[in-house]
Amino acid sequence: MTFLEALAAFAATYAADNRPLVLCGDMNVARADIDVHPKERETAAIGQLPERTCPVRAWSSAAAWPMSGVPLDPANEEYFTWWPPWRNMRQRNIGWRIDYVLASQPFAATAESCPSFRDVGTSDHAPVVATFR
After folding, report:
1. Are 69 and 130 in contact, with CB atoms under 8 Å apart?
2. CATH number at residue 41
3. How large is the greatest C-alpha to C-alpha distance in the chain, in angstroms?
4. How far apart are CA 6 and CA 31, in angstroms?
5. How far is residue 85 CA from its own chain's centroid?
6. What is the crossing angle of helices 2-16 and 50-61, to 10°?
7. Cα atoms in the 13 Å half-sphere on the side-chain side of 80
8. Domain that holds residue 100
9. pTM here?
């Protein structure tokens, strides 16, 4: 929580000065139910607790910090970026969206794509690559 609060404060300094900023990485937090496969949803799971999801949810829904991946394909219930490393979860695509690309406006408005490359790499996370005009 300390990290998320510090990151929000850092981002606020850029927003106050109208400077462009892109924040990307593994936040270890799912911001909404759609960000977790139904078989993995647990209200008591650390990355799904309301007090943990609130900062990321606020950024991704605010006009100043849209999330590049989800708004470009908001109804895609199969867009995940992390899978538990057991029971072939990655192969079965039973995962979470916890790796984000957040961009300040108006930079975010230039986002063209932000796929999650599930078939690339050996990590339990997929590369997430945002393309901006």
Report:
1. yes
2. 3.60.10.10
3. 47
4. 18
5. 19
6. 20
7. 23
8. 2-132
9. 0.84
